[in-house]
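Handoff note, outgoing to incoming analyst
You'll be picking up this chain. Sequence as last confirmed:
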Amino acid sequence: MSVADRRQREKLALRQEILAAARQLFAKEGYESVSMRRIAQKIDYSPTTIYLYFRDKHELIQELCEETFSLMTKKIEKAVSGVGDPVDRVKRGLRAYVEFGLQHPNHYRTTFLTPRHDLEGTHEMGSAGRGAFESLLGGVARCVQDGLFRETDVMAIGQALWSMVHGLTALQITHRDVFPWIERERLITLAIDAAVAGFLR
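Most recent structure output, in case you need it:
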């Protein structure tokens, strides 16, 4: 390996270290409370080093969100791929969404549960985020085309179903230990089945 290749690998490794530290701090302490200096302290680097990789905190969290949406999209697309009953595919996509959030709670907290005043009045969801949502919409559209849903507004159905799985995921992440929940898998199945059944003919 050449010196240039080794340096490039080191740069990429440090970039990932910065992202991992920022994700953990944002999820634990809140976006507004964490400074670039605080992130630098966590990985024992100077703030100047952080600014060599990210212009500001906004750029940093945008990168984290893009990463989260990319991973989520892959999981959802895998869940809904292949043949099968369109309704079952929608349910698999919704379950994949919930499972992703529960498997990656810091990713989910940072992307969906972290208030950020610097984004007020803007559309936070970029192309990667739309990709994740459109993976769910595709299954909904198929159900509408096949006449399986009584509602025909694909976007309205998609947003309603997304709102449900987001609420379910957020509650399981933030209130898992402070409420006497039923067994998790049963809860997920009941919630998804009930939500989808509400649109069936």
